[in-house]
Structure formats: C-alpha cells, structure tokens
What we know:
This protein is an alpha+beta fold and 219 residues long. It has one domain (4-215): Cell Cycle, Spindle Assembly Checkpoint Protein, Chain A, CATH 3.30.900. The chain is 30% helix and 35% strand. The protein has 4 helices and 12 strands. The protein is globular. Keywords: Cell cycle, Cell division, Mitosis, Nucleus.
Amino acid sequence: LSHxxxxxxxxxxxxxxxxxxxxxxxxxxxxxxxxxxxVNSILYQRGIYAPESFNRVKNxxxxxxxxxDETLSAYMNNILRQLEVWLMNGSVQKxxxxxxxxxxxxxxxxxxxxVECKLKDVDSAxxxxxxxxxxxxxxxxxxxxxxxxxxxxxxxxxxxNEPACFDLxxxxxxxxxxxxxxxxxxxxxxxxxxxxxxxxFDTKIHKVDLMVSxxxxxx
Length: 219
C-alpha cells in the first residue's frame, strides 16, 4: 500500500446521469460531491469549526451543513480537484479525515473512506464508455444513510476534550501523478482505539466504504 499523501493548506459538478444511466464521469462527480458534504458534516458535527461558520443547504433530501470559511473552502476545492483526477483514472484508494488535538498533536479520530474503482484495470477508452444501470435514486438513498450516520456520530463518539484541528490524507497508487504541493504524510494511526464501521454506497463504478476509529482513554 502506498504512503498517504497530504495537501497543505464550492461548487461541485452535478452528477452526469442520462436516462438514469451513470457514466464514469458521473460516478466521479457523485463521489466527489459526497466527499465534500461528508467532510463538511464531520467538521460541523465534531465542532472542529464554529457552528456560525456553516450555512444550511439542501441535498440528498437532507439539510446539510457547508462551510462559509473561505480558507477552508479553498483547501477543500484543491483537494476535490485532485481527487476528481484520481477518481477518473482509478488511482485513489482511500481518503482519510484525521482529527487531531490542537495542543497535543495527538490523533483523536480517523474517518476512513475506502474507495474501490471497478474500472481500475480497464483501458481509458473502455472506462470512458462504461455505464452503470443502477438507479440514481438508489445511490442517493445509500448516501442519505451515510450522512445520517455521520450526523448521529455524536451519540457514540467520545467528546473531544481539547480544541481540535484536522488533516486530509489520500492514499493513491504509486504510479499516480502527484502535484508538487502534496507531500508524504504519516498515516496518523491511533494506538489505543475502537472502530465503528458505517454504511457504504455503490454506483457500480465506484464503491465507497466508511469507517471511523477513535481514541479510547486509558483506564
């Protein structure tokens, strides 16, 4: 497995769905949009940014929280632009949101989005022509279930006992072209942790599984 990559410090394309058929480009847009809303939801629910720095928007039939912080928005847009490239060519393996204590630097939570591209070993022309006949409504329902779990995470995750910050790590294939503004990162594992597997969604072109691990206090 390759080392995680770390980019230092919107408007997302609508999914391409024609006659209820999802293309590679459309599946990429769906996953990219999902990452954007999921990261925003986690940052809001876990109190990483102040509640007043978020606006309510409607998507997936749900009320979502999206940042109004310009620096965070620019950071997210840079991440998402590169993720779009790697989703299109099947290079991305994982996206990990790491929550760290601002003072201690200790990793408190790891939100791991495992990504499987079903067209990974297909040539580019064939991949571009690939379609999924899975109804878009089913994909939306699966995403709804994940977002609801993220919202409910405050019921099972321990309170963060210090101010927290976050990093986004990306695992990409070794042959992936990496921008110069990205660098290798420590994986930020948690030594003493519990894990909770959350739901997944599948466009039949990309599948995304979500798991969160969190630090357990030493007794």
